[in-house]
């Protein structure tokens, strides 16, 4: 039996040096394999000590000789052997003549080296170990490989689905030793649905003999994180093919499972966030998508300064005093969101040193455990918040700034308490991606709302503020814009007094919506009043008005063309 070998780790900053290669040669025993290299013409270019032990020829005697001279008989051809030059590898038994005249049957593995690599064309290998019958199933190496296999958790069950063996990874996965699990069923070792599913798969293996696969999820006692496992069950057969037991192997695929969930959440967020140009609804969509997929409680708070100005302030943080944020959306796994300290629509002041203040100061997303000194210091100054944290068992928090196009809009909070898994760095990256998408949609909604409000204000100011009193006619009006862009179009009406107790009633409509339509409407309304004051007949007035519209269109085309040329010059 081979002696046990202890291998030390090489030190140093360089690559594999002579000392490392020498240590490797001592470890594997170079002379235990006969190694021969041949050139393209089949002549020996390399001959190691193992080859000398096998055939009795020294390297000096063999270098330069044709390897075919050593054959005791032709190489057997099965199924039509192609030319050796076209084979990447060849293996088989060949008869070779020993130096003392004996004929040896040697099992050879030959590798064909690609041309142009500067190495010999063929490498021939033959192990010198004596051929012995296969070892019994309980051979020490086989037993150790099962018990110590680091690639997966494995267990062997008999035909009554009772555990007979378990390796070290299975012991860690179940937090039980092999001795403690011996004789128990899977459903008795794991007392939840995953154990029952695994046992049903094992029963199908015994009934059909076909391997089974499924995914299970298990939280090991003493761990806060749930693990995802890909579980394979297969039959163990004796030499006659009779099933004598079942092997269960489980591979930990938690990281792949979490990555898949994160990708699915990003896809879902892209589908659901930003469905409308409404700030509050977009913020709520962010909260709805991320609860409970990412967090147990999420709130979206925007800068209170956005309420009173058309443009956000140049700096998100105040020059002095606390940071004022208005809560516009929130969602919780608990109905009614009882863990929320701030109600929807309420403005809260966050002092310097608080998590949102520091997150906006740095412009980066932050992750905190509630035991972190900075978070603890904030809670000490906020007893109400500290009581909620303690009462609900909140254990980790993420704070992510809402920013788009260089403008800071607010901050999003992500909290976990029902989910025992603490936030990790991957969760922080995912939250940053989702918030960035939502921030762009919120900024679009904010800009749309601002432009719409400006257009409405302009249009209302250009419409008649009151109707003139007329002796010849009694006038009443009601302005009811229709459609999805109500109040932001170019529709208008007017009542213009004329000479001779006459009155002009005007109704107009500019194609389009927004500021441009409102401004054009104002220009046309002014033109109509001017032309009406000249007392032109209706047909001439409309002709002049049509000419004015044509000139306005030409001006617009000139402006658009000029803008396009400017863009082309800047892109050169």
Jot down its keywords.
Beta-Lactamase; alpha+beta; 5-stranded antiparallel β-sheet; disordered C terminus; disordered N terminus; 572 residues
Description:
This protein has 572 residues and is α+β, with helices and mostly antiparallel strands. The chain has four domains: 23-127, PAS domain (Beta-Lactamase, 2-Layer Sandwich); 140-252, PAS domain (Beta-Lactamase, 2-Layer Sandwich); 258-452, Beta-Lactamase (2-Layer Sandwich); 465-569, PPM-type phosphatase domain (Phosphatase 2c, domain 1), CATH 3.60.40.10. The chain is 37% helix and 24% strand. The protein contains 16 helices and 18 strands. It has helices at 18-28, 49-55, 59-62, 140-148, 168-174, 178-181, 186-189, 193-208, 254-272, 279-290, 355-362, 373-380, 383-392, 425-462, 515-533, 538-570, and strands spanning 33-38, 44-47, 89-97, 103-112, 122-127, 153-158, 163-166, 212-218, 227-237, 243-252, 297-303, 323-332, 347-350, 366-369, 396-404, 407-416, 489-498, 502-513. Strands 13-12-11-16-15-14 form a six-stranded antiparallel sheet, with helices on both faces. The chain has a five-stranded antiparallel sheet with strand order 2-1-5-4-3. It has a five-stranded antiparallel sheet with strand order 7-6-10-9-8, with helices on both faces. Strand 17 and strand 18 form a beta hairpin. The protein is elongated and about 140 Å long. It starts with 17 loop residues before the first helix and ends with a helix.
């Amino acid at each position: 039996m081979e002696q046990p070998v202890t291998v030390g780790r090489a030190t140093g900053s360089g690559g594999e040096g002579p000392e490392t290669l020498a240590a490797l040669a001592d470890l594997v025993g170079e002379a235990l394999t006969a190694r021969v290299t041949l050139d393209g013409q089949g002549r020996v270019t390399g001959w190691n000590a193992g080859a000398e032990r096998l055939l009795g020829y020294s390297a000096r005697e063999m270098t330069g000789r044709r390897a075919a001279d050593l054959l005791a008989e032709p190489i057997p051809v099965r199924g039509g052997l192609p030319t050796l030059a076209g084979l990447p590898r060849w293996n088989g038994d060949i008869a070779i003549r020993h130096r003392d005249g004996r004929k040896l049957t040697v099992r050879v593995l030959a590798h064909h080296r690609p041309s142009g690599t500067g190495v010999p064309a063929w490498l021939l290998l033959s192990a010198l170990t004596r051929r012995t019958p296969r070892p019994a199933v309980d051979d020490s190496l086989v037993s150790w490989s099962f018990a110590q296999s680091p690639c997966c958790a494995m267990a062997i069950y008999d035909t009554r689905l009772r555990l007979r063996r378990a390796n070290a990874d299975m012991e860690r996965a179940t937090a039980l030793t092999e001795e403690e699990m011996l004789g128990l069923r899977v459903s008795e070792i794991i007392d939840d649905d995953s154990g029952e599913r695994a046992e049903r798969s094992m029963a199908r293996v015994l009934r059909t003999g076909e391997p089974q696969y499924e995914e299970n999820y298990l939280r090991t006692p003493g761990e806060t994180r749930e693990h995802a496992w890909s579980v394979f069950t297969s039959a163990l057969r004796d030499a006659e093919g009779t099933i004598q037991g079942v092997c269960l192997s489980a591979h930990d695929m938690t990281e792949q499972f979490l990555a898949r969930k994160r990708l699915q959440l990003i896809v879902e967020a892209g589908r659901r966030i930003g469905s409308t140009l409404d700030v509050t609804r977009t913020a709520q969509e962010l909260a709805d998508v991320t609860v409970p997929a990412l967090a147990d409680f999420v709130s979206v708070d925007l800068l209170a300064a956005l309420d009173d100005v058309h443009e956000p302030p140049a700096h998100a943080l105040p020059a002095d005093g606390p940071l004022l944020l208005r809560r516009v959306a929130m969602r919780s796994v608990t109905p009614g969101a009882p863990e929320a300290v701030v109600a929807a629509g309420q403005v809260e002041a966050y002092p310097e040193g608080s998590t949102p203040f520091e997150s906006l100061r740095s412009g980066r997303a932050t992750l905190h455990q509630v035991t972190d000194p900075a978070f603890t210091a904030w809670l000490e100054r906020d007893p109400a918040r500290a009581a909620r944290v303690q009462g609900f068992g909140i254990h980790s928090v993420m704070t992510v700034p809402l920013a788009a196009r260089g403008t800071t809009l607010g901050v999003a909070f992500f909290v976990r308490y029902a989910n025992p898994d603490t936030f990790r760095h991957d969760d922080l990256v995912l939250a940053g991606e989702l918030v960035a998408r939502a921030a762009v949609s919120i900024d679009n909604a904010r800009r749309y709302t601002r432009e719409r409000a400006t257009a409405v204000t302009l249009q209302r100011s250009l419409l008649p503020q009151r109707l003139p009193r007329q002796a010849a006619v009694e006038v009443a009006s009601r302005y009811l814009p229709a459609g999805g862009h109500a109040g932001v179009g170019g529709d208008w009406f007017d009542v213009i007094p004329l000479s001779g107790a006459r009155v002009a009633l005007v109704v107009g409509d500019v194609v389009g919506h927004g500021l441009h339509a409102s401004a054009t409407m104002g220009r046309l309304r002014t033109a109509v009043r001017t032309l009406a004051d000249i007392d032109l007949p209706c047909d001439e007035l409309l002709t002049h008005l049509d000419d004015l519209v044509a000139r306005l269109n030409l001006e617009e085309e000139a402006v658009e063309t000029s803008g396009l040329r400017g863009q082309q010059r800047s892109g050169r």
